[in-house]
Specification:
The structure is a single chain. This protein is of the alpha+beta class. It has a single domain, classed as 2-Layer Sandwich (Muramoyl-pentapeptide Carboxypeptidase, domain 2). 46% of the residues lie in helices and 20% in strands. A hairpin with a 3-residue loop joins β1 and β2. The longest helix is centred in the first third of the chain and has 16 residues. This is YslB family protein.
Length: 147
């Protein structure tokens, strides 16, 4: 079992040295986890995303956007900010490929959990995140709402 060294927090600098493939990650996300966890898999993915965020040191939203790219999660951008919510767009080639494959139904619960926790850490306010897949536009709208 591999454990993150206590002194080694995830940053945009040190994750750039990791090598990964999206296909392997998607197989674990959409086949293996649901097989082990059943209907709880989406909830676990959300909390796994929050847990990854707790182990990550980012100083600002620019580093957050860079982190999403390094993780292979797509291109994240803020499209609207209101008093109690922020709306982000997740797009790019990776998102388009995930949305238009025919092997499994995709979700973005891991990314949503990560964004909820990291938005909380960067702003000091508690947030929850909801996703809306916009297949026609080849993107996912992630909305963080202040709790």
């Amino acid at each position: 079992m591999s454990v993150l060294k206590e002194s080694a927090k995830l940053t945009t600098h040190n994750i750039s040295s990791l090598v990964g493939t999206g296909a392997g990650f998607d197989l674990m996300r959409y086949y293996t986890l649901p097989d082990f966890l059943g209907q709880d898999a989406p909830y676990m993915l959300y909390y796994m995303g929050k847990n990854i965020a707790r182990q990550t040191e980012l100083q600002n939203f620019d580093e957050l956007y860079e982190f999403f790219q390094y993780m292979g999660w797509g291109d994240l951008s803020l499209v609207q900010e209101k008093r109690s919510k922020m709306t982000f767009n997740l797009s790019g080639h990776i998102i388009e490929k995930r949305l238009h494959q025919n092997l499994f139904e995709v979700d973005f619960r891991l990314e949503s959990g990560f964004l909820a926790e990291m938005t909380q850490r960067l702003t000091g306010h508690t947030y929850e995140c909801f996703e809306e897949i916009k297949k026609k536009d080849n993107c996912v709208e992630l909305t963080t709402i202040k709790a």
